[in-house]
Amino acid sequence: MCVSRAPHRGRKRRGRIPGAALVLLGALPGLAAVGALALCANGVEHTVAARSRQAAARAATAPRPHVVPRSVWADATGEANTVARTPPPPRYDDKVLAVFVHHTDSPNSYDCAESPRIIRYLAAGQTGARDWDDIGYNFLVDRCGIVYEGRAGGIDRPVTGAHTQGFNHRTTGIAALGTFTAGVTVPKAMTDAIAALAAWKLGLAGVDPRATVRLVSSNGHSRYAAGTTAALPALAGHDEGYMTSCPGAALSARLPEIRALAAHLQGRS
User: Do the Cβ atoms of 150 and 71 come closer than 8 Å?
Assistant: First the structure.
């Protein structure tokens, strides 16, 4: 068994071979003894490297931000439809490798107390005119930075959404309430909340928000033919996977900043 000792000052730390092992190595032919020593030293280095990777993975997590549960917007009279109150059984993936950021293309001049009503309106449109089984976004964030649970299935779980055609698997969709085309101001509270949510969700799978991940397109209507493995940002705009102007030029321009903040929240340098 290989162990290590404190290094001499100014020298690189190396694995030390215990005395009993040296006695056994002395009985081996020269080349065999050299090979055994090399294997032992490599074993120490590989063990240290593996522990470093494990420590980095543990550090690359972020706390779960407060998420307003679905019941707050779905359980209401008048505007809330039956599907919103009693959604179909959810579908799940094994993990979340990427986040797609959207905007809802709805008015920006709203009071944040109105956010639940706006989300009910969006859900009614998607399950009504579009005939979807539930609201497509996994989460929605308003201009005050309040995060809402969207698609049913569990905030902590990798729920399969319906937000980015071709890339709904192993991803989460976060929609910013409003329209963020060129020249529109994107509230800092909103971008901070998106970063915090992405940092937590990606951190569950040890994914760096600044990384590139590989996702398989499931639909030829996306930017990639069905079955194609695409290299996409772990924190991407909707337009990275689908031919659209969403999430708007103004919000797209903030994505590098959101990625950097999300990585910082995960404890990454």
Answer: no
Please tell me the distance from the alpha carbon of residue 171 to that of residue 103, in angstroms, as a whole number. 16
Give the separation between CA 209 and CA 97, rounded to whole angstroms: 9
Residues of the chain short of pLDDT 50, as ranges, are 1-15, 17-26, 28, 31-41, 44, 47, 52-53, 55-56
C-alpha–C-alpha distance, residues 162 and 93, integer Å: 13
CB atoms within 10 A of CB 79: 15
pTM above 0.85, yes or no: no
Residue type, 254: R
Cα separations (Å) of 75 from 66, 81, 117, 174?
Answer: 19, 9, 11, 21
Helix/strand/coil for 128: coil
Peptide bond into 247 cis (omega under 30): yes
- What is the C-alpha separation between 56 and 14, in angstroms, rounded? 22
